[in-house]
Amino acid sequence: MEEKISSFEDLKVYKKLCDLHLKLSDLSLSFPKYELHELGSQIRRSSNSIAANIAEGWNNKHLNIYLEGINRSLGELRETEHHLYIAFRKGYLDEMVYKEYLEKYKECGKMLRGLEQSLFKWKIKT
Known about the structure:
Layout: H1 12-28, H2 39-57, H3 63-89, H4 95-125
Helix pairs in contact: 1-2, 1-4, 2-3, 3-4
């Protein structure tokens, strides 16, 4: 039996992205002090924006606007992956932690693409 989704907060991808943001935010606070307002801030903002764009577009009466929100989420996800890569290259993340976060964000990217495809199919039916 499928779970009823009555809010963006019911979406598994939204929950995963919020959890990832909170963990990544804490991790970014361990960056060197001079990076807290540079790379640390950028990674916190982009990771938060992924889920925020899902919330912002939810229940909009124009489906295309929600689809655009999902597209923005995917863009923020790629930006977060970039910031993770730079943090890894600068030595702020070890390889295992970097790959773990990267895999989790890639999984969420696939989930966002699935949500996007479901909405496209629903749009065609209506």
